């Protein structure tokens, strides 16, 4: 279902014979303003977008939407807005908020892409312990003309448009991944639980750790991998942490095939990871037995 912002822009585009004008600041561009344009191009591809890169208020007033300049709704240079993790919202975060309704989807996009861009654009420190993803749009700076190249307004505008077109497929992939995470969470929440809810059972791998971390009872997850074998994986103490709530026995670790069979006592053992967070077996039954042992610790 379309959002209010999307609906309003569509009405404008229809009245203007398929053309929409997006206003933003001129000169050097960054992932923040590029991503604003990318969202608009991605969600309203039926319109021809023209980017008006200026600080002239009269010109900006004629645009259908203005971002990262002008002091309006989608500028972030006024009173700051902070996410719970301490990241200050940038222009792209404001456009994201109004272009998508699904709160879970938006949070997945923030974690995978937006938080890092917004933090780097604003330069405000985040809360201690929160880990940001890598900046997947760092390459945007490569499109900015160098000091010894043509840096005229027309050249800068052309470079901005080039950066936008380059970034669209990256954003679309992030959107697919975010939607996948929303579906994965639903599957993990609805999955079978065994041993008093301490073990999540999945027919195939889907990202499940967020659901497990949110439930203090869960100790591990069992799932079938792409080769048809089975895995048992331990739950980390928190998102992004290498520390585990429970780990596989030290005597099992860093073993493969014959060594793993001897160490674990299971004749279908494939491997046990060095850190004790993951092990592979040929059968689900062996994973279930290992999970039972973990639950009895």
The topology string of helices and strands comes to HEHEHEHHHEEHEEEHEEH
- Largest sheet, order of strands side by side? 4-5-6-7-10-9-8
Q: Runs with pLDDT <50, length 5+?
A: none
Kindly report how far apart the N and C termini lie.
48 Å
Taken from the alpha-carbon principal axes, the silhouette is: elongated
What is the total number of structural domains? 2
Radius of gyration: 24 Å
The helix content, as a percent range, equals: 40-55%
Instruction: Please describe the biggest sheet, giving its number of strands, its sense, and whether it closes into a barrel.
Output: 7 strands, mixed
Report the average pLDDT across residues: 95
With helices defined by DSSP (H or I, 4 residues minimum), what is the helix count?
9
What is the percentage of strand-forming residues?
5-15%
Number of strands: 10
* Class by alpha and beta content: alpha/beta
